[in-house]
Amino acid sequence: MEQARRAEADDLERIVELAAALDDELAPMRGGALWAAREARPRPFDAQYGPLLSRPDACVVVGTIDDYIVGFGVVELETLRDRRTLGRITELFVEPNARGVGVGESIAIELIAFCDAAGVVGIDALALPGHRAAKNFFETSGFTARAIVMHRPFGGRP
């Protein structure tokens, strides 16, 4: 049975493994090279995700099937210039073989609930232009585009 729960310190090793899989999947996609250089968390992942587990302005969730962790998600709260709060889903990843059974939805529900309790004005999530499945997932979860980032590469650089 699939479900999601708040991540604990004992989950860190598995989160690190999934973060590496996330990087491996997204980096080669269209837009992935700049995502890896700008938005992705740098390695070592344990030093990045470990502190998130106890931050009051962040929520790390793991998704499981029969109590085995097959996905994770992270949302961070950002204070805007007008003092309102925005939720930013920075990661939401489910192993390919575990997709399509509700794990991602369960993770998203937990992340959204954290943001709702924090009184956010909204939640942002990034989907690469080459990742149609991510875009469709977020749209199914009630997200709509609020901005489109345009990019012009120079000299073959990403």
Characterization of the model:
- With 158 residues, the protein is of the alpha+beta class.
- The protein has a single domain (2-140), classed as Gcn5-related N-acetyltransferase (GNAT) (Aminopeptidase).
- The chain has helices spanning 12-26, 32-38, 45-52, 103-118, 132-140, and strands at residues 2-6, 58-65, 68-79, 85-94, 122-125.
- A five-stranded mixed β-sheet has the order 1-2-3-4-5, sandwiched between helices.
- Strand 4 (85-94), helix 4 (103-118) and strand 5 (122-125) form a beta-alpha-beta unit.
- Helix 1 packs across helix 3.
- The termini are far apart.
- The model has no long low-confidence stretch (mean pLDDT 96).
Q: From the helix content, strand content and strand pairing, which structural class follows?
A: alpha+beta
Shape: globular
- Topology pattern, helix = H, strand = E: EHHHEEEHEH
Q: What CATH architecture do you see?
A: 3-Layer(aba) Sandwich
The average pLDDT score comes to 96
Terminal Cα span: 41 Å
How many beta strands in the DSSP annotation? 5
**The biggest beta sheet, please?**
5 strands, mixed
**CATH topology call:** Aminopeptidase
Query: Which CATH class?
Result: Alpha Beta
Radius of gyration: 15 Å
Counted by DSSP, the helix tally is 5
Strand order of the largest sheet: 1-2-3-4-5
